[in-house]
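Example 3.2
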Amino acid sequence: MSFDILKSMEILTRTPRTLQDLLLGLSPEWVVGNEGPDTWSVMDVVGHLIHGEDTDWVPRARIILEHGETRAFDPFDQTAQFVRFRGWTLEALLTRFAEARVESLVTLESWRLKPEQLALRGRHPELGVVTLGQHLATWVVHDLGHIAQITRVMAKQSGDATGPWKEYLPILTRR
């Protein structure tokens, strides 16, 4: 499927609600466990999604629209959530994510982007030249990837209890 902003909005709009439906009211063990050393818990992932809303997706799109390739994106701190959201509850994280996403989508919709704008180029500090369309498509895939990560982390909390079925459950054996 080629990039379509309206189809992309279908996913971006649903991500906060999907996470709220999946996670709210769960026992802490589901959301604080991780996959081992140097991995993220469900709460870490939600914090990362908030940080992306605040410092990545719309801010970088704005840089492309206003500066093109003449200004590189600010570097993105992939692990800022560990300090920034220390002590937050899952409910507070999910609420903030939903609020931040609404703000992002209102901004995105207000731009009424045309195909020629999606072809505008910006400069990523590591990847080089990227288009606005590529950046926005990445936002969608990023959401879906982290939803998959969250379900994988949760599945692994019960992985040992599956006994011999583990070999038939790729969610338990893939990273």
